[in-house]
């Protein structure tokens, strides 16, 4: 009423103007989703008009805020990451550690956002992130913008996007150089203050729950101060980019001198200044054809920031801390939080009369502490964080008062497949097994199966009964023995034909995916630099340049030079990774497959999934990461029916039919690698995570990236691994190794292919070696697989054809692997595919081409 709120208006324009909904009906009909991707310049359509506006606004702000109009680049890294997240005893702990770090990183970013505006952030891309919209809604003047709530304000489960850990631990911002150090220190101080406030709030909750009277003098408060010293680890680098209106040659000379300290002394010129491109720009300037401004120095500035940050991380100064008492039962590094110093001197629970704070908590709130658990400050905060975050969201947004955070256990992840099968049976049949289990006892389910809990279906109550019997069976008393017998009887009944007709599932899977060579993509070196400047130009511009090169000798050389990194390039990469992590991955993992997403921070994904969904989920994530051509989808496999119906992919883009939205991805030249582990539900989570990281490393190192590794951890203690490229060297979809694994697993699941064939193949493959036998591989493999095939259930010719493709893929893998053994490669494929196909696990991966011709005709006319 008193005029324009310029700050709120600036935020609203930045956030909402790129949305197609802001266009009138005619413009929306003409442009639609392309409005978000409208290029800044049609001659060089490599970045959007919104990236252009963000960049110009950031530069204007930085110049205005520095007395000498100097612009700097601030690169900040927050840690520790892997160790902090991996310290977990449950899936909930894993998620909490990831989400806590993501939220902590955003607290640091807020300093930049509040001081300089959102345009200053080159990466990560923040526009459209639910957690950013949640923050904006609480800013004065923006609370009435319902558009900010789109997509999350009505979701009351933990599939709400606000529960996605979608922010990386690294940021790059354009800042006024004179204020860069101040901003970095403010961000560090704010993050440390925030984590301390949350830790103190968590301790206060523990004391209140345990009924401890507190006047602020308990030893736990001093422990919190000690435990949080040096946390988080914040490293940063501030480098000069350019002086507004200054001499470019002087700025270049200064940057070259600084960059030279990070390169070997024998290099003639460091980094960007040694490239032919810089030599061409210098020659253009001397001839007067083109006088570059300071913007061309961005590659050198980013290189300097990246190397300076790496140097800062090697120092890693940390305060000395003395821990005298018994340690946290989760991390083993710090004393457990206590309200009584004397309790730390003896093992927790050693004396019957010793009722520690954590023993009382375990009795009243088992979700906060398990039996015998005693946690330190950070581990306690992780354990309470799900509830604390849910409360914060409920208190800030109307309509989310019933929002809850659910914990999906590894047992539930393993049972997800059984639940889906039981849900297809008549409810009255399953209800006989569920008996009188209360709906309130039903554990949390993966989002795709959450309807079973909401609708109080017998399948969900049956899971609750199984979980209850498993808990009661732990121990050596008579009650535990009785529960064990009941559990065994119930599982035996489930094996009957009228229920599962197989053993109940006890294995689940985990996936860890990571983009390849992200450093190269950002720095413009290596494979990421394969694109030249001419590749980014409009065809008409290429023609005009071809005419001009007669007048300017070096112009053709410039056109073919590898494109150097730029702020717009970094913003485009950041936006693509943000869309993948926030809008594509959560939907695929939790709604289209029976999975639970732990984090999706840009190119990094960690998720748990039902074992029958493992292979199709891996394939889907790889396809969406690069926006790969739709011809690569195994369209005929039933497992991909929902995916194909929802997404159209190609040329580096993904179109989501359900929300009518177009996403730009990392592109068809970008690659990613993934590790997957199949483990028993009772396997220690720390072991599973270690094996998962090992599998991902094998994909990157053994298969030289753009690959996957599947590792099967059997309960017997043995482990089998298969490592291969995602796609075939010849580009044919039917020769892709992962597709072959899926088809073979589907064959094993069909009931018409004896598992004995796999054992025979694996046995004689282990006895073969040398190239002289490779010609005999295909016919022998085809004969062995065909003789173990039931022609009434499967098309024997199709089985033989699969055998020949398997042999061909093994030979191609051997050539790509520089002498790798094709027999060993194929042996690993058969072992893993057989395990993933047992008991019908891969039934949805059997294509109609495998059915006998008569059955195919029946299906076609059915």
Quick description:
With 862 residues, the protein is of the alpha+beta class. The protein is 47% helix and 10% strand.
What can you see in these coordinates?
By secondary structure, this protein is of the alpha+beta class. It is built from 31 helices and 13 strands. The strands form three sheets. It has a six-stranded mixed β-sheet with strand order 6-7-5-11-12-13. Strand 6 (595-601) and strand 7 form a beta hairpin.
In this structure, how is the largest beta sheet organized?
6 strands, mixed
How far is it from the N-terminal to the C-terminal residue, by CA? Answer: 67 Å
Q: Strand order, biggest sheet?
A: 6-7-5-11-12-13
Low-pLDDT runs of 5+ residues are 857-862
Helix coverage percent: 40-55%
Global Rg: 29 Å
Indicate the overall shape: globular
Mean pLDDT: 89
SSE-based structural type? alpha+beta
How many E strands? 13
Output the keywords.
disordered C terminus; 31 helices; 862 residues; alpha+beta; 10% strand; single chain; 47% helix; globular; six-stranded mixed sheet; four-stranded antiparallel sheet
């Amino acid at each position: 009423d008193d005029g324009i709120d310029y700050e709120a208006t600036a935020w609203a324009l930045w956030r909402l103007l790129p949305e197609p909904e802001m266009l009138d009906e005619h413009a929306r009909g003409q442009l639609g989703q392309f409005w978000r991707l409208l290029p800044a310049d049609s001659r060089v359509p490599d970045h959007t008009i919104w990236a252009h506006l963000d960049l110009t606004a950031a530069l204007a702000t930085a110049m205005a805020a520095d007395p000498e109009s100097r612009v700097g680049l601030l690169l900040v890294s927050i840690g520790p990451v892997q160790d902090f997240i991996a310290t977990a005893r449950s899936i909930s702990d894993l998620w909490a550690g990831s989400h806590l770090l993501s939220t902590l990183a955003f607290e640091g970013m807020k300093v930049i956002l509040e001081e300089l505006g959102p345009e200053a952030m080159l990466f990560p891309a923040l526009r459209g992130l639910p957690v950013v919209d949640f923050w904006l809604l609480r800013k004065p003047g923006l609370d009435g913008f319902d558009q900010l709530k789109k997509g999350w304000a009505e979701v009351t489960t933990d599939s709400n996007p606000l529960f996605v850990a979608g922010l990386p631990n690294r940021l790059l911002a354009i800042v006024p150089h004179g204020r860069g150090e101040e901003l970095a220190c403010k961000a560090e101080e704010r993050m440390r203050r925030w984590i301390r406030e949350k830790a103190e709030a968590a301790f206060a909750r523990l004391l209140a729950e345990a009924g401890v009277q507190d006047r602020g003098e308990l030893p736990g408060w001093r422990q919190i101060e000690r435990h949080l010293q040096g946390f988080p680890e914040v490293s940063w680098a501030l480098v000069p980019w350019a002086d507004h209106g200054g001499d470019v040659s002087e700025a270049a000379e200064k940057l070259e001198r600084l960059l030279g300290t990070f390169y070997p002394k024998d290099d003639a010129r460091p980094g960007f200044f040694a490239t032919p491109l810089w030599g061409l720009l210098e020659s253009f300037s001397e001839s007067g054809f083109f006088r570059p401004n300071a913007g061309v120095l961005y590659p050198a500035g980013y290189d300097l920031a990246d190397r300076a940050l790496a140097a800062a991380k090697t120092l890693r100064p940390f305060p000395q801390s003395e821990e005298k008492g018994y340690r946290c039962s989760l991390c083993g590094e710090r004393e457990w939080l206590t309200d009584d110093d004397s309790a730390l001197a003896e093992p927790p629970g050693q004396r019957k009369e010793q009722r520690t704070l954590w023993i009382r908590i375990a009795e009243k709130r088992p979700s906060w502490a398990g039996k015998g658990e005693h946690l330190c400050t950070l581990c306690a905060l992780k354990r309470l964080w799900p509830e604390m975050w849910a409360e914060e969201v409920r208190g800030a947004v109307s309509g989310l008062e019933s929002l809850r955070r659910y914990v999906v256990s590894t047992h539930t992840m393993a049972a997800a497949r059984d639940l889906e099968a039981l849900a297809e049976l008549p409810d009255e049949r399953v209800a006989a097994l569920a008996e009188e289990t209360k709906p309130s006892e039903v554990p949390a389910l993966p989002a795709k199966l959450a309807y079973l809990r909401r609708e109080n279906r017998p399948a969900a109550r049956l899971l609750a009964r199984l979980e209850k019997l498993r808990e009661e069976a732990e121990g050596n008393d008579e009650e535990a023995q009785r529960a064990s017998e009941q559990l065994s009887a119930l599982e035996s009944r489930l094996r009957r034909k009228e229920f599962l007709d197989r053993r109940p599932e006890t294995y689940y899977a985990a996936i860890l995916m990571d983009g390849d060579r992200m450093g190269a993509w950002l720095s413009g070196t290596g494979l990421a630099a394969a694109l030249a400047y001419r590749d980014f130009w409009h065809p008409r511009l290429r023609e005009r340049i071809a005419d001009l090169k007669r007048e300017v000798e070096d112009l053709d050389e410039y056109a073919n030079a590898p494109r150097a990194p730029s702020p717009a390039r970094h913003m485009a990469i950041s936006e693509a990774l943000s869309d993948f992590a926030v809008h594509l991955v959560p939907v695929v993992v939790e709604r289209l497959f029976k999975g639970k997403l732990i984090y999706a921070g840009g190119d990094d994904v960690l998720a748990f999934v039902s074992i029958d969904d493992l292979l199709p989920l891996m394939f889907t994530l790889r396809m969406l990461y690069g926006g790969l051509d739709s011809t690569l989808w195994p369209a005929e496999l039933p497992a991909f029916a929902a995916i194909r119906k929802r997404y159209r992919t190609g040329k580096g883009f993904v179109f989501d039919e359900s929300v009518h939205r177009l996403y730009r991805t990392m592109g068809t030249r970008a690659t990613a690698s993934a590790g997957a582990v199949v483990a028993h539900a009772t396997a220690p989570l720390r072991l599973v995570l270690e094996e998962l990281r090992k599998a991902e490393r094998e994909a990157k190192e053994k298969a030289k990236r753009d690959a996957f590794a599947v590792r099967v951890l059997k309960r017997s203690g043995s482990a089998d691994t298969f490592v291969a490229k995602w796609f075939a060297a010849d580009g044919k979809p039917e020769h892709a190794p992962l597709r072959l694994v899926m088809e073979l697993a589907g064959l094993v699941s069909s009931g018409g292919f004896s598992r004995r064939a796999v054992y025979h193949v694996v046995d004689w493959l282990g006895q073969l070696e040398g190239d002289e036998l490779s010609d005999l591989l295909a016919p022998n493999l085809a004969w062995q697989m065909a003789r173990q095939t039931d022609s009434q259930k499967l098309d024997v010719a199709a089985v033989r054809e699969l055998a020949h493709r398997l042999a061909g893929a093994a030979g191609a893998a051997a050539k790509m692997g520089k002498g790798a053994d094709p027999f060993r490669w194929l042996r690993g494929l058969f072992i893993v595919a057989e395990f993933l196909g047992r008991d019908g696990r891969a039934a949805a991966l059997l294509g109609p081409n495998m059915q006998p011709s008569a059955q195919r005709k029946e299906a076609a006319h059915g």
